[in-house]
Amino acid sequence: MGASSLLLFLLLIVSVSLSVAHNITDMLSGMPEYSLFNSYLTQTKLADEVNSRQTITCLVLPNAAMSSLAGNHPLSVIKNALSLLVLLDYYDTSKLHDISKGTTLTTTLYQTTGNAPGNLGFVNITDLKGGKVGFGSAATGSKLDSTYTKSVKQIPYNISVLEISAPIIAPGILTAPPPSASDVNVTALLEKHGCKTFASLIQTSGVLKVYQSEMAKGLTVFAPSDEAFKAPGAPDLSKLTNAELVTLLQYHALAGYTPIGTLKTAKAPISTLATNGAGKYDLTVKTAGDSVTLDTGVDSSRVADTVIDNTPVCIFTVDNILLPSELFGKSPSPAPGPGPEPVSSPSPAVSPSPAPVVIEAPGPSIKSPPAPPLAPEGAPAEAPVAEAAKSTAGSGAVDLRAPALWKTVATVSAAFVTRALLS
Ligand SMILES: *[C@@H]1O[C@H](CO)[C@@H](O)[C@H](O)[C@H]1NC(C)=O
Ligand SMILES: *[C@@H]1O[C@H](CO)[C@@H](O)[C@H](O)[C@H]1NC(C)=O
Ligand SMILES: *[C@@H]1O[C@H](CO)[C@@H](O)[C@H](O)[C@H]1NC(C)=O
Ligand SMILES: *[C@@H]1O[C@H](CO)[C@@H](O)[C@H](O)[C@H]1NC(C)=O
Predict the structure, then answer these.
(1) pLDDT tens digits for 136-194?
(2) Helix spans in 251-401 (H)
(3) Distance, CA of 369 to chain centre
């Protein structure tokens, strides 16, 4: 326990020191000419993405240009267009005018979303005649019809904010079909991304309906991979009651749109769909560089891959099953123990489906036998020593059920960026 508390402490320090670099919302807040742009950065949650990165250039649009871009486009389209204005490199005025050979392609945030085919996530910066600098999509045949107008603010070499005259439009970016909640086939997407077990569980348990009812307002899902369910020591789900299984699956989702940049900047524990009066069922987010880890208090899991990030729905894969401490915790009387099953266990969010807890029995019996007692039955109930032995046995039992504890905490990965760059 001492080692993991220390690790937790170190991670806390790392994540805090990484997350306070800059605040784009604050930087633009005193400048009314960018108020519309700033407002869309917040609405699309791109501000969190900008703030969570260390070397970045934000090309901003004055209100008139922003207003014509926003037009009648859905937020998902605006988000894509604005992510093309976030350059993953530091450009100030002198660097702009000093581009070798006078032209370069630079990577943008759009490239990291997985929504940008080919080189559509890159921007062409070219020194034009007369000291002007032009910006355009890297797609062949694109015009450089946006130009640098002025420098807004710099924190060298962390963030540079530059004004440009017009949005950079990549081919097709404005006409991408807006994803409506009913367009997203969650189970099909999950199956395609190696999460067949999870897809099947949410279908048979009825939790899929809960997810679907949240999708219009915003939904974030953390889907464990098929490997996570097969991992040695993964909990035996057939030992859970229906209500516990529903709670466990609801614990793998958040109400609201929480893309990766927003996760990275989450400071307080975040509530899940399982959160209700009877339990916190929350998650703590730890960030180290590009690696994001979710900590349940019992185990932790790396956020591995983005399955879909389309405002307002975001689905990630995770390496381990997330085990809420309310169900798998190390308290002397574990929640899934004997005792009457609470009738109102699933949160009110389940109500859209009349009988959500009815599932196919995975084994001969759905009802589990009571969890084994933490200490051996006949253990003499002596004094402090026995108590200590008991609690050791207790944490041993927890570790058996959640052996992934801290396994992935130290994993440092640039998965999101490298995947995008390689594709
Ligand atoms: C730039 O970012 C680094 C890392 O977050 C930070 O230590 C440094 O203070 C920042 N520089 C400025 C001038 O804010
Ligand atoms: C950034 O600044 C805005 C406006 O000043 C503030 O509301 C917001 O909480 C800040 N964000 C962070 C992550 O500190
Ligand atoms: C940028 O665009 C201009 C004009 O289309 C083109 O001549 C130039 O080669 C492009 N730069 C790069 C690095 O592709
Ligand atoms: C979603 O995909 C699954 C396959 O995973 C398919 O069985 C189902 O019919 C699809 N649902 C809709 C509404 O298209």
Answers:
(1) 999 999 999 999 999 999 999 999 999 999 999 999 999 877 666 667 889 999 999 99
(2) 260-265, 325-328, 384-401
(3) 36
Q: Report the distance separating Cα 221 and Cα 186, nearest Å.
A: 10
- Is residue 219 a contact partner of residue 307, using CB atoms and an 8 Å limit? no
Torsion of CA 104, 138, 44, 224, to 10 degrees: -100
User: What is the CB-side half-sphere exposure of residue 120 using CA atoms within 13 A?
Assistant: 17
Q: What is the mean pLDDT of residues 53-77?
A: 93
d(CA 194, CA 274): 24
Q: What is the pLDDT of residues 213-255, one digit of tens each?
A: 998 889 999 999 999 999 988 999 999 999 999 999 999 999 9
Q: How far apart are CA 357 and CA 245, in angstroms?
A: 8
Model-level pTM? Answer: 0.65
For 8-39, the pLDDT digits (tens) are 554 444 444 444 579 999 999 999 999 999 99
Considering only residues 261 and 10, tell me which one the structure prediction assigns the higher pLDDT: 261
Which domains are assigned to the chain?
A: 14-164 (2.30.180.10), 181-326 (2.30.180.10)
Looking from the CA of residue 155, the nearest atom of ligand 1 is 13
Per-residue pLDDT at 334 exceeds 80:
no
154 lines ligand 2 (CB under 6 A): no
Please give the C-alpha separations between residue 221 and each of 119, 272, 306, 349, 357, in angstroms, as whole numbers: 28, 10, 10, 15, 19
150 Cα to the center of ligand 3, angstroms: 22
Please name the residue ranges forming H helices in 106-239: 186-192, 196-205, 207-215, 226-230
- Please check whether residue 219 is in contact with residue 249, taking contact to mean a CB–CB distance below 8 angstroms: no
Cβ of 105 closer than 6 Å to ligand 3, yes or no, is yes
Looking at ligand 1, which residue's alpha carbon is closest to its atom 12?
A: 155
Q: Is residue 185 within 6 Å of ligand 1 at its C-beta?
A: no
Q: How far is CA 87 from the centre of its chain?
A: 21
Q: What is the model's pLDDT at position 406? A: 36
- Is the pLDDT reported for residue 341 higher than 60? no
C-beta of 29 in contact with ligand 2 (< 6 A): yes
- DSSP helix/strand/coil, 154: strand
Beta strand 56-60 pairing with 159-164: parallel
In sign, the C-alpha dihedral spanning 181, 183, 187, 192 is negative
| Strands 146-155 and 133-137, sheet pairing | antiparallel
